[in-house]
Amino acid sequence: PPLNIGDWLECGLVFKVYQSMLRVIKDSENVDERQHCFLIQTSGQESRYFSVETRQELLRIESAWHCSVCAAVMKLGSKTFNVTTATGGTSAGLTLDWNL
């Protein structure tokens, strides 16, 4: 884990919250004996599986994640994504504008 500010600048792996999804794992879905697990999923990268010591820590992480997503979306203002239509397979741009 990062021990000082410099460590945050040298992270080997960074996830943008507006391009990632946090998913809390149900007890029945655990892949091993660990409890209080969650996934961070991003497109084009392998999902990362994490666990914490207590249920309370997991709830704090989930809450902080949602707050971070809201803050990132408000800061972005708008974002355009390249998409392909399901019916015709044509390329298009999808712009989400939160400044309205």
What can you tell me about this protein's structure?
It is a single chain. By secondary structure, the protein is α+β, with helices and mostly antiparallel strands. The chain has one domain: PH-domain like (Roll). About 25% of the residues lie in helices and about 30% in strands. It has helices at about 5-10, 55-75; strands at about 20-25, 35-40, 50, 80-85, 90-95. Strands 1-2-3 form a 3-stranded antiparallel β-sheet, with helices on one face. The chain has a two-stranded antiparallel sheet with strand order 4-5. The radius of gyration is 17 Å and the shape is globular. The relative contact order is 0.13. The mean pLDDT is about 90.
For the structure shown, list the relevant keywords.
PH domain-containing protein, three-stranded antiparallel sheet, 100 residues, 2 helices, alpha+beta, two-stranded antiparallel sheet, globular
Give the topology, please.
Blueprint: H1 5-9, E1 20-24, E2 37-42, E3 48-51, H2 55-76, E4 78-84, E5 91-97
Antiparallel strand pairs: 1-2, 2-3, 4-5
> What is the number of E strands?
5
Number of separate domains: 1
Helix and strand pattern: HEEEHEE
Beta-strand portion reads 25-35%
Task: Fill in the CATH topology.
Answer: PH-domain like
Give the overall pLDDT as a whole number: 89
Question: Based on helices, strands and strand pairing, what is the structural class?
Answer: alpha+beta
The global form is globular
Largest sheet: 3 strands, antiparallel
Helix amount, in percent? 25-40%
Read across the widest sheet, the strand sequence of neighbours is: 1-2-3
First-last Cα distance: 39 Å
Q: Which CATH top level class fits?
A: Mainly Beta
Low-confidence stretches: none
Protein name: PH domain-containing protein
Organism: Graphocephala atropunctata
